[in-house]
């Protein structure tokens, strides 16, 4: 099958488009014909070796953890899905090997949910990793409640934009950091935008003089420090970007695959509670360009790669 892979750590230039063996389908997995796969910062961080101490590579590595597609063949023990079902998944293994930037991926049923019927395959591909991250942090580490004020960093980005929508759904007031060009976008999501950079803590206090009840850091560094500075008494802090959050009494979070939570997100998408904004889409053979674009940062929503018939036969 056609896929994107890399045989050594490095920049986008190590990504190659070519033939790899089709994955084997275990008893509790399904073979998914990939229609789209989202690009996440963790993809290029893995590719450059930043997570080598956590995730062992089995080269050649096919990158990608997010997927939307169609079940081609279920494993022998699978009763949850059948051929032809449209699905989404956060298909993360405990090592780096067979990812979603390919024609097919073998996905354990514990990583899958049914695709929201109202989202395109491109939009749906951007929901699993970012949506689960936002959902798990907001409902777990931060335990956001109705009537609370929540600070979300990078509110126009993949995780941030979904966190704003979910927090609003939970009944919270949301203040979201974003560049000036994304302020209207954050307002459309239901958040109150504030520019990031120097003086951020003062700007947040201008909107929430008593402090915020919860802060969701997706950036780290100065943003994490500002978050700690604007917490109200008893406020909660969580970060997905900076382990130093523990020194401020907060929690460092890493998203887990969870089929039930992913199905809940799919249902919320069908209800119009959350939506996924796709800023750019690239064909599979141009995945290196998609990685470059994601690595530049400042993405509004998601960047995805698509697998069409040209990729399958070319």
Structural account:
The protein contains ten helices and 17 strands. Helix 3 (128-141) packs across helix 4 (158-169). The chain is globular, with a radius of gyration of 19 Å. The protein is 28% helix and 29% strand. With 314 residues, the chain is of the alpha/beta class. The strands form four sheets. Strands 3, 5, 6, 8, 9, 16 and 17 form a seven-stranded mixed sheet that branches. Strands 12-11-10-13-14-15 form a six-stranded parallel sheet, with helices on both faces. Strands 1-2 form a two-stranded antiparallel ribbon. It has two domains: 2-127 and 276-313, Quinone Oxidoreductase, Chain A, domain 1, CATH 3.90.180.10; 130-252, NAD(P)-binding Rossmann-like Domain (Rossmann fold).
């Amino acid at each position: 099958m056609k896929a994107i892979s890399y045989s050594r750590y490095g920049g986008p230039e190590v990504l190659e488009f070519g033939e790899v063996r089709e994955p084997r389908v275990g008893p509790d997995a399904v073979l998914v014909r990939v229609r789209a796969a989202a690009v996440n910062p963790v993809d290029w961080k893995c590719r450059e070796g930043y997570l080598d101490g956590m995730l062992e590579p089995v080269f050649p590595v096919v990158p990608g953890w997010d997927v939307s597609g169609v079940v081609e063949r279920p494993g022998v023990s699978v009763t949850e899905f059948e051929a032809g079902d449209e699905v989404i998944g956060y298909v993360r293994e405990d090592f780096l090997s067979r990812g979603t930037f390919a024609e097919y991926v073998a996905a354990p049923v514990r990583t899958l949910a049914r695709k929201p019927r109202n989202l395109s395959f491109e939009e749906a591909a951007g929901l699993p990793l970012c949506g689960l991250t936002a959902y798990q942090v907001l409902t777990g580490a931060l335990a956001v409640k109705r009537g609370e004020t929540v600070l979300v960093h990078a509110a126009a980005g993949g995780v941030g934009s979904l966190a704003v929508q979910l927090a609003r759904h939970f009944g919270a007031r949301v203040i979201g950091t974003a560049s000036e060009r994304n302020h209207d976008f954050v307002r459309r999501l239901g958040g109150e935008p504030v520019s990031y950079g120097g003086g951020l803590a003062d700007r947040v206090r201008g909107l929430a003089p008593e402090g915020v009840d919860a802060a969701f850091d997706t950036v780290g560094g100065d943003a994490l420090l500002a978050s700690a500075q604007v917490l109200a008494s008893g406020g909660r802090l969580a970060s997905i970007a900076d382990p130093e959050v523990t020194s401020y009494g907060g929690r460092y979070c890493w998203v887990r695959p969870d089929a039930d939570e992913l199905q809940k997100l799919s249902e919320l998408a069908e209800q119009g509670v959350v939506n996924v904004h796709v800023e750019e889409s690239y064909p599979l053979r141009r995945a290196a360009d998609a990685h470059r674009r994601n690595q530049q940062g400042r993405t509004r929503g998601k960047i995805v790669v698509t697998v069409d018939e040209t990729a399958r036969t070319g």
